[in-house]
Write a structure and sequence with these properties.
mainly alpha, Rna Polymerase Sigma Factor, Chain: A, 3 domains, 74% helix
Length: 266
């Protein structure tokens, strides 16, 4: 389909001095590019970063991508450009949130700890699901060994790295919500009690801190916490199982462990 404006711009991009043609392209088609980006990135800063990435990629190799457009094809230049920008947005998103971007401090850890970092700190899987995911690749991996690995990763991360993880998770939550299938769009508009991305990220950070604190407890201390708060056993039942004097003794011991756990999390 013919488009006189794009034809002139593409001729200019093929010339020896494409600067004016590139400026004309940005003036004419930046709104189109931003429209596509906003389908992927609701956050303004993320959209700006993505826009810069798209422009850099369109400039590469003397505008190789733009020069690929075939005049006379089934699609107009604007429709074709939307498809190109969409693919670049996916590339940017993989670059921003993809598995290959590992912090240097994490890269120095063992292969197991890097698996734990990906599953627990990046994908935010519960411990049980992380165990199911990592277990087949690490035969003999126990629940306690997984908690110890979480503690090692927690110690390796700096405060800035933890903040970066929370920002990435918040942006990813925004992006996934924006890319919901058309048939589910109405669900995104229904008011609910779901946490916003920032609160969700803070909750995930607190969960990771709790897991790291649990890993620093002794096996008996962890058992006390699990029996009381995971298994929901009564104080009498815990006292009998662990051979404590009575329910009051079990309650006192649990309170001591909780104080220790809070100190571990700070």
């Amino acid at each position: 389909m013919s488009d006189p404006r794009s034809s002139g711009i593409l001729r200019g991009l093929r010339s020896r001095n494409p600067r004016k043609a590139w400026a004309a392209f940005l003036e004419a088609y930046s709104p189109v590019i931003l429209d596509v980006i906003r389908l992927f990135e609701h956050d303004r800063d993320a959209a700006g970063d993505c826009y810069l990435f798209v422009c850099e990629q369109l400039c590469r190799d003397r505008f190789r991508r733009l020069r690929r457009f075939q005049r006379g094809g089934p699609a107009s230049f604007q429709t074709w450009l939307r498809a190109v920008v969409r693919n670049l947005c996916l590339d940017w998103h993989r670059q921003e949130f993809g598995r290959h971007r590992v912090f240097e401090s994490v890269g120095r850890l063992s292969v197991l700890d890097q698996e734990i970092f990906q599953a627990v700190f990046v994908e935010c899987l519960p411990v049980e699901e992380a165990h199911l995911k990592i277990g087949p690749r690490v035969p003999g991996l126990t629940h306690d060994a997984l908690l110890e690995g979480i503690a090692r990763v927690e110690q390796a991360l700096t405060s800035r790295q933890r903040w970066l993880l929370s920002v990435r998770r918040a942006r990813a939550a925004h992006s996934l919500a924006r890319r919901a299938p058309d048939g589910e769009e109405w669900l995104q508009q229904v008011p609910g009690e779901a946490l916003n991305p920032e609160s969700w990220a803070a909750l995930q950070e607190a969960r990771v801190a709790l897991l790291a604190g649990m890993a620093r407890l002794s096996p008996r201390e962890r058992l006390l916490i699990r029996l009381r708060f995971e298994r929901d056993l009564t104080l009498d039942e815990i006292a009998k199982l662990l051979r404590l004097e009575n329910a009051q003794s079990a309650d006192r011991r649990i309170r001591e462990v909780l104080v220790k756990l809070r100190q571990q999390m700070t």
